C-alpha cells in the first residue's frame, strides 16, 4: 500500500528519523496559516510547496515550488492545488493534486556544504534478506544512476538472523564519504530508518534526497514508503492512511469484492483462479494474437457473485473485445463455476463481447455441458489449446 510523503514522514519521525518538517493542507488559505506556524516553530523564512500524489518526479512536473514570502505561498499553492500533475510515473493522464505539503526550507547557508544523498531499504528476494542501498547521487532518479554510474550505488545486505549491525551502518556512512558530526548523524539516521522499516512491515523505504544540511544534520527531505498489505492486520492504525483517490477505480472496486485486479492495455479480458494460472492465461492470449487487458484473480472460491463482480469490472474497460475465463476446478467444482457464469451473465444482461470459458478439473465435462446448453454467447473449452483457438477465432472475426 502506497502512502503520501507527509504520511511517510510522520511514521519516520515517530521512530526518531529526522525529517524536513511540514504541514499538509488542501486550500491556499490554510497554506498561508501553515507557513506562519512553521515559521514560528522552526524559524524558517522560506517554504517549499510540495504536491502530494503517489508518484515520483513531482519537481520536474511542476509540483514542487519554493516560496520566499507568504504571498508566494498563497500563489504557488493556488497553482499546484487542483492541477493535473504529469510525471514519468503517472503516465500521460497525470494525477489531480488535492493536497500540498507546506515544508520548511532546509537548504539554508552555514559553515559546511549542503549535500544530497540517496538511501533506500527493500527486500532482496534473490538473497532472501533486506538490503540498504545508498548513493552520493541524491536527488537523481536511481535508475539513471544505476545505468550510467553503477559504481556509485552502495549495497549492504542485512542478515535476518541478527538484523542491522552497527558496523554496517558505519560502513554505509563511510562509503558516502562522510566524517565528523555528519558521519555520526548518518549512522543514527540509518539505524532509525532500518528500525522503522522492520517494525512497520514495509516492503520499501526510499528517501531521496537524504540531506546533509550546512550545519551537518542528516534528514529526510522526501520519503516514499510502501507498506505490505499482507501485514496490515498487525497495523490497524495504518489502514486509514490509504488514499483510494490515488488508485485506479477499477482496482479499488476489485479490492472491495476480494478480487485481485490489475488493468493492462490489451483487448482480451481474463478471469482466472490463481496467480500462476493467470500468467499462463495471459501467455495464451498473446500466443493467439491478442493482448491481455487485465490480470484478474477470483481466488479459489469462484461463484456467481465473484464472477459477476469480475464481469462488471472487466466490461468497464472499453478496449475489451472478448473475455477468457480460465478456471481449474480443484477447490471449487467446474459445474458450480459454469452455473455461476450463466447466472452472472443473466444478472448483468446483454454482454456485448464473446466469452470463452475454459474449465479443467473436477466435473469439467459437466461444466462444459452447462455452458453449451445455456443458449448464451458463451463458448466452452476444456483444453488450453481449445481456449487459444477460440480466442484466435473471436479476434479474427472482430
Automatic annotation (TrEMBL):
ATP binds at residues 50, 57-59, 106, 116. It is an enzyme of class 6 (ligase). GO terms for cellular component: cytosol; succinate-CoA ligase complex. Mg(2+) binds at residues 208, 222. PROSITE patterns: SUCCINYL_COA_LIG_3. GO terms for biological process: succinyl-CoA metabolic process; tricarboxylic acid cycle. Succinyl-CoA synthetase functions in the citric acid cycle (TCA), coupling the hydrolysis of succinyl-CoA to the synthesis of either ATP or GTP and thus represents the only step of substrate-level phosphorylation in the TCA. The beta subunit provides nucleotide specificity of the enzyme and binds the substrate succinate, while the binding sites for coenzyme A and phosphate are found in the alpha subunit. This is Succinate--CoA ligase [ADP-forming] subunit beta.
Amino acid at each position: 500500500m502506497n502512502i503520501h510523503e507527509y504520511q511517510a514522514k510522520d511514521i519516520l519521525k515517530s521512530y526518531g528519523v529526522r525529517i524536513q518538517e511540514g504541514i499538509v493542507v488542501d486550500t491556499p488559505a490554510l497554506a498561508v496559516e501553515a507557513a506562519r506556524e512553521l515559521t514560528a516553530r522552526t524559524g524558517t523564512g522560506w517554504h517549499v510547496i510540495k504536491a502530494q500524489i503517489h508518484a515520483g518526479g513531482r519537481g520536474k512536473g511542476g509540483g514542487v515550488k519554493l516560496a520566499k514570502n507568504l504571498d508566494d505561498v498563497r500563489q504557488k499553492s493556488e497553482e499546484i492545488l487542483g492541477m493535473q500533475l504529469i510525471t514519468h510515473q503517472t503516465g500521460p493522464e497525470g494525477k489531480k493534486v488535492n493536497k500540498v505539503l507546506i515544508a520548511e526550507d532546509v537548504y539554508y547557508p552555514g559553515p559546511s556544504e549542503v549535500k544530497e544523498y540517496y538511501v533506500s531499504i527493500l527486500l532482496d528476494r534473490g538473497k532472501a534478506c533486506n538490503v540498504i542501498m545508498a548513493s552520493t547521487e541524491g536527488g537523481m532518479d536511481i535508475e539513471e544512476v544505476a545505468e550510467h554510474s553503477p559504481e556509485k550505488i552502495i549495497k549492504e545486505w542485512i542478515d535476518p538472523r541478527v538484523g542491522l549491525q552497527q558496523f554496517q551502518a558505519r560502513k554505509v556512512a563511510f562509503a558516502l564519504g562522510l566524517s565528523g558530526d555528519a558521519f555520526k548523524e548518518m549512522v543514527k539516521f540509518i539505524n532509525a530508518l532500518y528500525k522503522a522499516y522492520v517494525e512497520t512491515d514495509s516492503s520499501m523505504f526510499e528517501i531521496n534526497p537524504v540531506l546533509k544540511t550546512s550545519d551537518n544534520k542528516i534528514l529526510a527531505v522526501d520519503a516514499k514508503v510502501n507498506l505490505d498489505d499482507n501485514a496490515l492486520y498487525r497495523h490497524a492504525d495504518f489502514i486509514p492512511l490509504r488514499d483510494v483517490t490515488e488508485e485506479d477505480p477499477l482496482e479499488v472496486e476489485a479490492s472491495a469484492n476480494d478480487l485481485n485486479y490489475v488493468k493492462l492495455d490489451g483487448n482480451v479480458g481474463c478471469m482466472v483462479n490463481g496467480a500462476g494460472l493467470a500468467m499462463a492465461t495471459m501467455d495464451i492470449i498473446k500466443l493467439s494474437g491478442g493482448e491481455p487487458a487485465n490480470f484478474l484473480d477470483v481466488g479459489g472460491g469462484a461463484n456467481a457473485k465473484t464472477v459477476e463482480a469480475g464481469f462488471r469490472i472487466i466490461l468497464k474497460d472499453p478496449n475489451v473485445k472478448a473475455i477468457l475465463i480460465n478456471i481449474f476446478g480443484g477447490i471449487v467444482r467446474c459445474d458450480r463455476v459454469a452455473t455461476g457464469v450463466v447466472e452472472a451473465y443473466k444478472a448483468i444482461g446483454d454482454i456485448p463481447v464473446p466469452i470463452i470459458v475454459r474449465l479443467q478439473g473436477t466435473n469439467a465435462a459437466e461444466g462444459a455441458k452447462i455452458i453449451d446448453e445455456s443458449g448464451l454467447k458463451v463458448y466452452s473449452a476444456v483444453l488450453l489449446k481449445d481456449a487459444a483457438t477460440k480466442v484466435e477465432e473471436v479476434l479474427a472475426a472482430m
